[in-house]
Amino acid sequence: MLQIFLMFVDISHEMKLSSNRKDLQVHQAINIMNFTASICNRLNLKQLVSNPPVYSSATDVSGEGLSLIFRRWATKKTAGSTKNGRDSLPKNLGVKKFGGERVIPGNIIVRQRGTRFHPGNYVGMGKDHTLYALKEGLVKFERHKLSGRKWVHVEPKDGHVLHPVYADAAAMKKMETMA
Fold first, then answer.
1. Dihedrals φ, ψ of 14, to 5°?
2. Pairing label, strands 131-133, 123-125
3. How far apart, in Å, are the Cα atoms of 85 and each of 88, 89, 175?
4. What is the pLDDT of residues 35-50, one digit of tens each?
5. Where does residue 151 rank: exposed (0-12), middle (13-18), buried (19+ CB within 10 A)?
6. Environment class of 109 (CB within 10 Å of its CB; exposed 0-12, middle 13-18, buried 19+)
7. H/E run at residue 169
8. Which residues does 127 contact at the CB level (< 8 Å), separation at least 6?
9. Which tens digits make up the pLDDT trace of 132-151?
10. Among candidates 72, 156, 73, 69, which has minimal Cα distance to 120?
11. What backbone torsions phi and psi does residue 35 show, to the nearest 5 degrees?
């Protein structure tokens, strides 16, 4: 590449000596110098030595100077894989049965992550914190006044039923209060 540059400088010097076509030759010399300067600016010396540009032919000389054909290489990889268009399925969380709605045993009342709502009377909690009805009745939401904790209860259709162990204790207490 440096030899070509020196050849261009010699040609431009010879063109300047000729007085017949002085204007044309000066114009051509300036164009050639601009061209070689732009090549030197775009390529560093290592590329000039190791990766010479491709020419159509070494003897291809026209009235305008050497005809150069450069090969371009891609500067960025194309057609790579993309990570768009993937999404997880919806989890369908939230309250499923609202306050005052009728539920039967096994009905899901709330699907949640963590314990945003806590199970109250006749409400069970699954391993994924899902709240479900244990008895038939109406759903009731309650917020504790001091802690602010939200509780979900089911008001049974038959009324509250005590466990037999506690039913006997309650009956005994009534008898004691009467006597």
1. -65, -35
2. antiparallel
3. 10, 12, 72
4. 767 766 666 655 655 6
5. middle
6. buried
7. helix 164-178
8. none
9. 999 999 999 999 999 999 99
10. 156
11. -65, -45
